[in-house]
Amino acid sequence: MTWNDKELFKKAMDDVKPLKDPAKAVFLQHKSARTFRRTEDIAVADNFLITALHDAIPLDLPLCYKRDGIQQGVLDKLRGGRYPIEATLNLTRAPVETCRRDLFAFMQRLSRESVRTVLIIHGKGRNNDSHANIVRSFVARWLAQFDQVQAFCSAQTFHGGGGACYVALKKSAIARDENRERLARRGR
């Protein structure tokens, strides 16, 4: 600090008084509601998930989806619950629009991380027209709309059975590069 900087600092701090009891001082952080709103509005505007459901999936039909090019062994291993679950989303008893928004935000967050397998708990009703089965049907349709979803299927009973589903996601670019390097070293 130069002499001028010290004088300016002393002049700026001239009217500042020390706290009487520094242990009782409370520091508040201001959170801008505007920023939160703006990002929420963007997330709602970018949400491409369908809002109309034509037919609910019957309860006796387990959820099962596999994108083209995915081996049957991957789906079988997923169905058996043999992949470690890295994240979970619970949608039980939530309105459909809330489920839509939460699932979209969850998948957007996962696309930035290197998560491969998730468990989505949607609930299971007693009849085909129950709210839980409507959410279940929407979740199945919504998951198929995401490019990063490779496969999904109903979960094992210890993870929720027909009221939950396992979802296998694509590897992130970082994970793909690490895998290539590991395999290249092994081949030498």
From TrEMBL:
Keyword terms: Endonuclease, Hydrolase, Nuclease
Task: Write down the SUPFAM superfamilies for this protein, in alphabetical order.
Answer: SMR domain-like
Does the keyword Thylakoid belong to this entry? no
User: What sequence ranges are listed for the domain Smr?
Assistant: 89-170
Gene Ontology terms, MF aspect: DNA endonuclease activity
- Report which superkingdom the organism of origin falls in: Bacteria
Q: Extract the NCBIfam families matched here.
A: endonuc_SmrA
Q: What protein am I looking at?
A: DNA endonuclease SmrA
